[in-house]
Inverse folding.
């Protein structure tokens, strides 16, 4: 138990009592306030004092009498204080949430309650919007703005951005900073560098000889809506895009360790730091230091990891999922890279719900230096997507044959994203399926089926000869939960039937996700990293699929669209 937590509860009780009408409340309020301070400033855990010396030990502490000692005992034993719960019920003000807003605290939150009747975050937002807070004594315009910023930050934290939205924003900022000529080196760190599927805030590190000018230039960008906090070498801004961004200016000597530190994850860092300590070093954002507190020169992150007896760990693996042990054993795998991908096996045209023509998608594929692409439109039962029936598929395949006869730089595979119907059968006649080079199976309806039925449905499709299972869990990030399925059974069926699992690169899908990729890998299955492009612009989503695959520790040899066309064709042929 933390002293701080108990102290905060005492402070809250004191505040509640200060507005209570009972005659003894005022006196009691002061007592809780004093006791809170005693607990907060204790140099050892209060639980230890209690364990060693019991209630009497607690009563030796300044300002703590029998009654308060009993409250502390109650908290240590039950994790609750009845009096606190009762006061919270009596005064319907969410002091706890309100006081956690930066710049508010318990006392100030209480002032807002007394003056404006602000009971919760909603009320606070309203009061800020209506500019009522500035007129309260000890608040003013500045602190109203600070609260407004803190509220926005809190909202952003609960509503994380998709990687696919945050990364381009970060890259734009980096580009603009670079153009100012005030910075020598810039890197994106934090969760974006780890390619996490959602992002809390953007973290940028820069080397500059003129940090204050660099920060000024940055805050002057028209992407910036407001400055949340500013120092000599660090600034936090709120971007018009609705996400916040930290810029830190670092000295050249500290850059490697700062990059390592601010890339995270926090959990990974904690373990790396422990290893540093065990080897007689100290590691923090300023550098790696030896026993005599002398800096150990590290030019880059690899130097840091190597000094600590580890392989370099790619950012995407830094999640404290066993990568540190692997690095110590020098077994970090060579992860798949964007350049390993030779083709995209999941693309739509405006024949179904895509925005571009077949020819435009082919040209975009060639422009992206792909050796092959698969055109995989939706099938007839998916009416909202203008799914194709047998006849329209045949007409499209004829067009593809003609294109293949003429175009030499890219090969077009004939395919379909075939609906897996409720009973697990496929939404097209066998004759047309036989004409396809590649059959992708996908669930687009009946998401709410129970676990057993849904698992059987998908396994049925796997057994009836699909090559790839598209977006296997069906989740949409921040929008739709995965459907209820037994993934391990599905992975087993994929293994048995040589069915490939898709890693769908669409920013709100990233399906399979990192953890499921690790899980599936244990079943020794193969993967395809596809864009599911519905427009030529979507081809660039591939990097998010690659990032997700790397977070799933995937190597090139497990991904079929890294293969040359002929090898790929052989794999696809194996189907019945
Ligand atoms: P996010 O922004 O929620 O998507 O996730 P991150 O990982 O970008 O987290 P953020 O922005 O709070 O901090 C960036 C990195 O800084 C984080 O990944 C690790 C490092 N860091 C931040 N706070 C701590 C800390 O208290 N301890 C350690 N060891 N590292 C920290
Ligand atoms: Ca971050
Ligand atoms: Ca941050």
């Amino acid at each position: 138990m933390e002293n701080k937590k108990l102290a905060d509860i005492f402070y809250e009780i004191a505040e509640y009592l200060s507005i209570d009408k009972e005659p003894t409340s005022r006196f009691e309020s002061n007592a809780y306030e004093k006791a809170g301070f005693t607990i907060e400033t204790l140099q050892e855990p209060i639980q230890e004092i209690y364990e060693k010396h019991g209630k009497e030990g607690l009563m030796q502490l300044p300002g703590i009498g029998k009654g308060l000692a009993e409250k502390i005992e109650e908290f240590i034993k039950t994790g609750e204080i009845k009096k606190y719960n009762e006061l919270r019920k009596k005064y319907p003000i969410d002091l706890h949430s309100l006081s956690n807003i930066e710049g508010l605290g318990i006392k100030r939150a209480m002032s807002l309650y007394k003056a404006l009747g602000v009971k919760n975050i909603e009320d606070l937002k309203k009061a800020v919007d209506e500019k009522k807070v500035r007129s309260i004594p000890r608040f003013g315009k500045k602190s109203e703005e600070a609260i407004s910023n803190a509220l926005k930050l809190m909202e952003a934290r609960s509503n994380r951005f998709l990687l696919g939205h945050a990364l381009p924003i970060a890259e734009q900022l980096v580009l603009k900073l670079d153009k100012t000529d005030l910075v020598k080196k810039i890197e994106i760190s934090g969760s974006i560098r780890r390619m996490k599927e959602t992002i809390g805030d953007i973290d940028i590190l820069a080397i500059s000889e003129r940090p204050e000018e660099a920060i000024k230039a940055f805050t002057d960008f028209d992407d910036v809506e407001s400055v949340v906090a500013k120092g000599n070498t660090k600034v936090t801004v709120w971007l018009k895009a609705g996400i916040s961004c930290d810029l830190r200016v670092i000295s050249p000597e500290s850059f490697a360790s700062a990059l390592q530190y601010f890339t995270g994850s926090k959990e990974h860092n904690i373990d790396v730091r422990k290893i540093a300590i065990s080897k007689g070093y100290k590691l923090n954002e300023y550098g790696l230091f030896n026993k005599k507190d002398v800096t150990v020169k590290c030019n880059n992150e690899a130097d840091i990891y190597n000094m600590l007896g580890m392989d370099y760990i790619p950012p995407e693996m830094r999640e404290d999922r066993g990568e540190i042990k692997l690095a110590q054993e020098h077994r970090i795998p060579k992860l798949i890279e964007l350049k390993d991908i030779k083709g995209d096996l999941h693309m739509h045209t405006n024949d179904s719900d895509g925005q571009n023509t077949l020819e435009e998608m082919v040209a975009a594929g060639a422009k992206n230096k792909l050796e092959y692409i698969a055109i995989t439109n939706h099938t007839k039962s998916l009416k909202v997507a203008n799914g194709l029936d047998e006849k329209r598929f045949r007409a499209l395949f004829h067009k593809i044959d003609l294109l293949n006869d003429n175009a030499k730089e890219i090969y077009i595979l004939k395919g379909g994203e075939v609906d897996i119907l409720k009973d697990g059968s496929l939404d097209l006649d066998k004759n047309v399926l036989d004409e396809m080079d590649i059959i992708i199976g996908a669930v687009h309806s009946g998401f709410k089926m129970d676990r057993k039925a849904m698992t059987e449905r998908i396994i049925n499709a796997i057994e009836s000869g699909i090559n790839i299972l598209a977006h296997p869990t069906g989740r949409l990030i921040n929008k739709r939960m995965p459907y209820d399925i037994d993934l391990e059974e599905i992975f087993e069926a994929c293994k048995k039937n040589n069915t490939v699992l898709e890693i769908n690169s669409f920013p709100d899908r990233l399906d399979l996700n990192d953890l499921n990729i690790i899980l599936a890998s244990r079943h020794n299955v193969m993967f395809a990293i596809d864009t599911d492009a519905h427009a030529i612009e979507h081809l660039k989503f591939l990097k998010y699929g690659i990032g997700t695959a790397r977070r799933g520790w995937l190597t090139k040899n497990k991904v079929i669209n890294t293969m040359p066309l002929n090898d790929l064709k052989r794999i696809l042929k194996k189907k019945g």
About this structure: The chain has a mean pLDDT of 94. Residues 286 and 462 are 53 Å apart (CA to CA). The chain has four domains: 3-156, 161-250, 254-328, 338-573. Residues 190-191, 200-201, 203 surround calcium ion (ligand 2) (CB under 6 Å).
